[in-house]
Write a structure and sequence with these properties.
The protein has 302 residues and is an alpha+beta fold. It is built from 7 helices and 10 strands.
């Protein structure tokens, strides 16, 4: 079999190199002509990632929902961007009728909090909140509720203030200027923790408002708040100068949630005491608790 002359192979090689160089030149030209668009896209993507991180942290901290995920997206048939917030297996799922009006009210609170957490100048036309109940019995099963809002629906701007930092929120510090209006809420919350330490649930019930008393009797409140001690042992301590305030809207009422971080023998717990925002912060309109962390059981010596 005859092989092609060497000159033919040289021509093929030169043609290939020429095509590669031409292609590279075209790509370079396209990049140069569109450099501002490319850098703008990269910058916009980085800004979006940072904004979603802020939204996730705000919802996680405000609603004690560690499995919260935010993303920016577009959907066919919907004008403008959508800020989607998914909350998975949050503790409040067991305390609310998620599929009813309570669920919609909570979704509204979360959407407002998400919007407030966006960096200044960031704008979304649409918001959706997804409640995802996941159970694992052999396979992972999900049951979801999706609630959607236009930006114009979110006419309430919630507030979130705390001592310390996101990494160390169990820290004491004097009330900052913007939080001084909640000084009485902090002292009331400390008084309630002292009542919990003494297991004096009657003192807490005595300061509950009429709406609480109309739905809960003294024994039910004692059982609910005393469950933490029954499960995790006596209160060891807390920091009077630690504070966390979140103002939310619930059924057209503005509620201040004051959270205290309390150490028990076998767990650290968030106690949240709720007051009518703008009131005297003496009377409770609600209270609840969530575990922050649970101590590992001690191993018995072999």
């Amino acid at each position: 079999m005859e092989t092609a002359p060497r000159s033919v192979w040289k021509k093929v090689l030169w043609i290939g190199c020429g095509l590669a160089l031409a292609f590279g030149a075209v790509v370079t030209l396209v990049v140069v002509l569109n450099w501002s668009k490319i850098t703008g896209f990269v910058s916009e993507t980085a800004d979006t990632i940072a904004a979603m991180s802020e939204v996730q942290n705000a919802v996680r901290e405000t609603f004690h929902a560690p499995e919260t995920f935010a993303k920016s997206k577009y959907t066919t048939g919907v004008a403008g961007r959508i800020l989607s917030v998914e909350v998975v297996n949050a503790p409040f799922f067991s305390q609310l009728m998620i599929d009813g009006e309570e669920g919609r009210a909570m979704a509204f609170d979360i959407a407002c909090t998400a919007r407030a957490a966006l960096p200044q100048g960031t704008h979304y036309e649409n918001f959706e909140v997804i409640f995802n109940r996941r159970t694992k019995v052999g396979a992972v099963l999900s049951r979801t509720r999706v609630t959607k809002f236009a930006e114009s629906d979110l006419d309430f701007a919630p507030r979130f203030l705390r001592s310390g930092t996101a990494e160390n929120d169990d820290a004491e510090e004097p009330l900052r200027t913007e939080a001084e209006t909640y000084a009485r809420a902090l002292s009331s919350s400390n008084e309630f923790v002292e009542s919990l330490r003494a297991r004096d649930y009657g003192a807490i019930y005595a300061r509950c408002g009429e709406d609480v008393r109309g739905n809960t009797d003294a024994q039910t409140l004692a059982n609910t708040m005393g469950e933490a001690v029954d499960k995790f042992g006596a209160i060891r301590g807390y920091k009077p100068g630690q504070w966390k305030f979140a103002v939310r809207e619930y059924r057209s009422r503005r509620i201040l949630a004051s959270t205290k971080i309390v150490e028990h023998e076998r767990a650290v717990i968030n106690y949240t005491f709720q007051f009518e925002e703008g009131g005297g912060y003496e009377t409770l309109v609600g209270c609840q608790w969530y575990t922050r962390s649970i101590a590992a059981p001690e191993k018995s010596p072999k």
